[in-house]
Structures are given as structure tokens and as C-alpha cells.
Amino acid sequence: MEKVIFEAVNLSKEIEGNLVLQNLSFKFEDKVAAAIQGHNGSGKSTLLKILAGIYEPSSGKIIRNTRRIGYVPEHFPENLRFKLKEYLVIMSSFHGISRKGIEFELSKLIDLFEIEQFLEVPLKHCSKGTKQKVGIIQALLAKPDVLLLDEPLTGLDSSSQRNLIHLLEKLKKEVTIIFTTHEDVMIEKLANQILYIEARGILFSNETRKKKRLIKVEFPQKEVFKDLDSIHIQYEGNTAVITVDSAMCDQILISLLNKKCSVLEVREMR
Ligand SMILES: Nc1ncnc2c1ncn2[C@@H]1O[C@H](COP(=O)(O)OP(=O)(O)OP(=O)(O)O)[C@@H](O)[C@H]1O
């Protein structure tokens, strides 16, 4: 079982007399890539701000079992006079990175996000996509274990969207990513959990796409699977392809090995 990093229990949030979120209960596990979905005004950004600790619930509770949270708001500040690199150096010092460490940390992220050619460009002249990357880099400089992204694809053209999704796919191996979005492509590529908020703030559904693993084994006889009847098994001659929740994988592997099965393949599925 993965560590639970956020748990909401009957969480409600009222802003200026308006009940925005009502009685939400959910969990996010460590290293999840979770999408928060819902119509305009359903409360997605508000929920993200609660996860970030910018807002506290009006009632109910939120348990944050995190070390450090990186939050990237939907809109990067307008009209910043700093040049891109100058701005990131200033942000690094806010995060307590030593002068010596700054160049090293920044160069890794500058390479990863491919923004080398814009380092001396004033931020107010950078494209929306570049500013979005700067926002994420700024959050990553704090070495967060959780990255919260509010509508990261808004305003980006389709190639910048693909580019950013690709980066996030790399990052999700290292860090928990929770994002709000209206873009199906982002959910399809990244999310293994979806939290859906219905209008008027009521949680409509909380669909969890659990991580799955595929196990391929050679088996002596079909009886070895008789205790695994709730698990999806596809037979090909004397090999079987079994789909299991990742959390159950080790336990099932041990049981199959004990029953003289030969394991041919184990891999993560999306
Ligand atoms: N600071 C605030 N003051 C007053 N009302 C607010 C504030 N923040 C949010 N709200 C209200 O809370 C509701 C939810 O807003 P929120 O921005 O969380 O929705 P959202 O789902 O992120 O919307 P969108 O998809 O349009 O970005 C809206 O009705 C909004 O007007």
C-alpha cells in the first residue's frame, strides 16, 4: 500500500458566503498522477489551493502528509521585468539553494525544459508556454515531493501542450503530480487517478485508475489459478497473462512461484 499524502474528510469550503466545496472525502497516494476535473466554477482551483495550504477548509479536514509542496498557479505573474534566468536565480535563493548550488540545479532544469535560448529574454516578452515552464521550474527548485498544477495547458498551442505533457510524464516518476485540467489529452497521457467535482461543489465521482501490472507465466496446470478467480487471466496454451493491481503483485507472484509456475514477464501497465 502506497503512503497516503493527502486525505480529505468531509471537507467543505465557503468563500464570501458561497459554498464552493461540500463534504468532499478522498485520498491521494504518493506518486499518483491525479487529475481534478469538473465544469467551470465547480471548485477545482479552490481544491488545489486547499491541497497547497493556501486555503484551509471551512469545515471537515485535510491531512497533508507531505514534505514540501510545489504549487503552480494558472497564470504566471504578468509584466515581470526580470530576465528569465535572473528570475530563476532569485527564486533559487528564496528556496535556500547556495550560490554554488544554483548553477548546478538550474542547468539541470534548463536542459530538461529546453529553455536555453530564452535565458536572457525579459519574462514579459516570453511566450505563455515558456512562462508556464518557468513556473514549474520555480516550483521544482524547492525540491517538492508534490507538484500541484492549476490548468497547466491553458493558452498553450498543441505542440507546446504535447511538449509540456511529455515533460510531466518524465517528472511523474519522481514526484506526485496533481493537476486541474479541461484537456482530455492530459488526462489520457498522465492521470492514474481522476477526481471529478460536480457543479455546486458536490463530489460527483471519484474514479481511481489503480496502477496495474501484467504478469506472464508458464503454468503446470490451470488449478494453480483457482484462488485467483477475481483477477483477469487470459490463457495462451500453457502460458497465462494475468492483470493485477500493483499493490497485489508481489503477493501473487510468490503464490505462483510456490505453485511451480515460471514467471516469463512482469511489467507496469498504463
Ligand atoms: N477568492 C474568491 N472570492 C469569491 N469567490 C470565489 C473566490 N475564489 C473562487 N470563488 C468562487 O468559487 C467557485 C469555484 O471557483 P474555482 O476557481 O475554484 O472553480 P474552477 O472549477 O477552478 O473554475 P474554472 O474551471 O473556470 O477555472 C466560483 O463560483 C468562484 O466564483
Which structural traits does this protein have?
Rossmann fold; 2 domains; 270 residues; alpha/beta; single chain; 7 helices; Alpha-Beta Plaits
Give an account of the 3D structure.
With 270 residues, this protein is an alpha/beta fold. It has two domains: 4-208, P-loop containing nucleotide triphosphate hydrolases (Rossmann fold); 212-269, Alpha-Beta Plaits. It has seven helices and 13 strands. The protein has helices spanning 44-52, 84-94, 99-113, 128-140, 158-171, 184-190, 246-258; strands spanning 4-15, 18-29, 33-38, 59-64, 69-72, 146-150, 176-180, 193-197, 203-208, 212-218, 232-236, 239-245, 262-269. The strands form three sheets. A six-stranded mixed sheet has the order 5-6-7-3-8-9, sandwiched between helices. A four-stranded antiparallel sheet has the order 11-12-10-13, with helices on one face. The protein has a three-stranded antiparallel sheet with strand order 2-1-4, covered by helices on one side. Strand 8 (193-197) and strand 9 (203-208) form a beta hairpin. It starts with a strand and ends with a strand. The protein binds adenosine-5'-triphosphate. The site of adenosine-5'-triphosphate has 13 residues, from strand 2 and helix 1.
| Assembly context of the chains | single chain
Largest sheet strand order = 5-6-7-3-8-9
Q: Could you name the CATH class of the largest domain?
A: Alpha Beta
The tally of domains stands at: 2
Bound ligand species = adenosine-5'-triphosphate
CATH topology of the largest domain: Rossmann fold
Helix content: 25-40%
Percent range for β-strand residues: 25-35%
- Give the strand tally: 13
Distinct helical segment count: 7
Give the full name of the CATH homologous superfamily of the largest domain. P-loop containing nucleotide triphosphate hydrolases
What is the averaged pLDDT score? 87
How far is the first residue's CA from the last residue's CA? 18 Å
How can the largest sheet be summarized? 6 strands, mixed
Low-confidence stretches: none
Q: What would the principal axes of the Cα set say about the shape?
A: globular
Organism: Neobacillus massiliamazoniensis
InterPro entries: AAA+_ATPase, ABC_transporter-like_ATP-bd, ABC_Transporter_VariousFunc, P-loop_NTPase
GO molecular function: ATP binding; ATP hydrolysis activity
Keywords: ATP-binding, Nucleotide-binding, Transport
